[in-house]
Amino acid sequence: MVTRSACNINIDECSRNLDNCDGNATCTDTAGSFTCACNAGYRGNGLTCYEYILFLLPNPTTITNRNRNHRIQFDIPIPFGSEFFDSLFISENGVILLSRNNQNRVRNAAFTTPIQNPSGNLRFIAPFWDNLAGGTLRFQLDQNSAGIGNTTCDLPRINDLIKNHLSINFTAKMVLRIEWDALTIFPDSLYPNSASTFQTIILSDGLKTIVLFAYQGGLMNYVPDATQRSANNVGRGFYNNLGSQHYSSGNYFPHLGSNIGTNGLYLYLFDPGTTRETSCINWYNTQSLPWITPFRFSCPWSLFRAFRDRRWLYQSGADAFRGTYPSYFPRNSFCFQRTFGLFGSSIGPRCCYHSNFGFFIAGTHSHYELNQFPNFFSPSNYNAVYNSYLNNEVLPYDNCCNAREDVFPYYCSLYEAVRPKTFTFAYRPPRFVVEVLAFRPDDTGSRLSAATIVELGALVTPISSTCSMWNTRSMDWVNSS
Question: Are 222 and 253 spatial neighbours (Cβ–Cβ below 8 Å)?
């Protein structure tokens, strides 16, 4: 017979290891029972605890209008597949959409049912694509063209994952954090306990894109129920112009798996390889900002003036490859290259004019000249000059700025930063030049060196400080001998 006093004796299940709390939970004894609570850094009901893997959004923006997809604009386009995008759309239905065309359609479409066999022009990143509702949808975008430092919240942790699992040198210039917090299956009235929380982190340096999916164990409560729903096939993965990548349907519990060893975390790298955009960026990174003197480097006013000014050479060699490569030069144009830069510099303008009417079309500074006197008369050196000109002037313009292609303005801004445009406002025609003849100081009359030709107003430095005779004359152009 059990006495009443015996029934009042409390058994401490925690101290006697009679509890069923998770190994990462704390057991607390109570009168006649006990409770379990997950330890700091873990989430769950105490009986099952999961490591907390979600990333912080210290300054998030909450998307309140979820009747249409929310557009995010990037300062630097990001690669996805072998294409580049300067914006994307966030859907409450657990999918991120990318499109360079038909953006209004993408913005307003519901995308409630995941695609089983993706095809066509739609590009997407799908962390957990299904018909979702309720909860909170938020994001945080950080951008810096010089790179985002490790002081940004949680970025050191992300960089460690990239370093340990992708083994690449990577400095993010854009970090986009997106969080779907406690979204339920639609209609939420039928599935009030189906709330799921997951994140997507997108990082890019302009040359590569990294995507990180995070699914928090203990907060992923998706309930597959084919009896109530016509579509019950959560889509996860990617689709771009290279096809489906890591895409699957019907995986309702991604928090129980991983591709990097930590349950709930999935890390993916998208490297487009060599494209027009990556070639533009890599070329830009090798350049230095030019030293420009506009008053010395303005273009002649017109085609007639360019032909008359012997300081400029007609770009006849350029016509040879005008039809082979996307046109660097405007169509229906004659282009001229400044034969020498200022004080020996190889930086001089290239100026183009309408072939029929002669008006100025465009001008840009260049570092490499197709026509240089030392090479113009030396065929053995011409191929090297031509190749330098092609690789450092023609192709970079085509990669960065070719208007006949679908190029984002960002890339052309890189080109113009190191190849600034020039105009005609400060052009000065050659009206007087000086031929400086230097003679030996013994007055024998023998010539010391070739003539030096300078523009009127330029600094004239004698060839020899002991020269005893100067000979000057007015002319349009002097061929020194």
Answer: yes
Burial letters for 382-403: b for 16+ Cβ neighbours within 10 Å, e otherwise? Answer: beebbebbbebbbbbbbbbbbe
**pLDDT 10s digits, 97-133:** 998 776 778 888 888 888 888 888 889 999 999 989 9
Q: Which CATH number fits domain 4-51: 2.40.50.140, 3.90.78.10, 3.10.129.10, 2.10.25.10?
A: 2.10.25.10
Q: What are the pLDDT digits (tens) for 409-467? A: 899 899 888 888 888 888 888 764 443 333 333 344 433 333 333 333 333 333 333 33
In terms of C-beta density within 10 A (0-12 exposed, 13-18 middle, 19 or more buried), how is residue 263 classed? middle
Q: Which two three-digit tokens encode residue 358?
A: 């002669």
Q: How far is CA 69 from the centre of its chain?
A: 23
At residue 282, what is the residue type?
A: N
**8 Å CB contact between 203 and 269:** no
Report how many helices (DSSP H) and strands (DSSP E) the chain contains, helices first.
10, 23
Strands 196-204 and 348-354: unpaired
pTM (global) more than 0.85: no
User: pLDDT tens digits, residue range 191-222?
Assistant: 788 889 999 999 999 999 999 999 998 889 88
Q: What residue ranges do the domains of the chain occupy?
A: 4-51, 61-273, 279-418, 430-481
pLDDT at residue 347 tops 80: no
What is the C-alpha separation between 92 and 179, in angstroms, rounded?
Answer: 10
Q: Which two tokens stand for residue 160?
A: 């460690």
Let me know: does 351 contact 300? Beta carbons within 8 Å. Answer: yes
Q: Rounded distance, CA 86 to CA 206, Å?
A: 10
Alpha-carbon dihedral angle through residues 401, 405, 410, 414, given to the nearest 10 degrees = -20
Count the Cβ atoms, other than its own, within 10 Å of residue 207. 19
What is the full DSSP assignment across 333-402? EEEEEESS-GGG-S-EEEEEEETTT-BEEEEEEESS-S--HHHHT-HHHHHHHHHHHIIIIIHHHHHHH-
**pLDDT of 90 over the 80 cut:** yes
How far apart CA 352 and CA 479 sit, in angstroms, is 26
Helix axes 276-284 and 409-418, enclosed angle (nearest 10): 30
Average pLDDT over residues 21-43: 89
Q: Quick check: helix, strand or coil at residue 27?
A: strand
As a whole number of angstroms, the distance between CA 292 and CA 348 comes to 9
**Which 8-state DSSP code applies to residue 421?**
B
- DSSP secondary structure string for all residues of 439-481: B-TT----B-S--EEEETTSPP--S-TT---------S-----
Closest CA relative to residue 312, chosen from 295, 300, 296, 330: 300
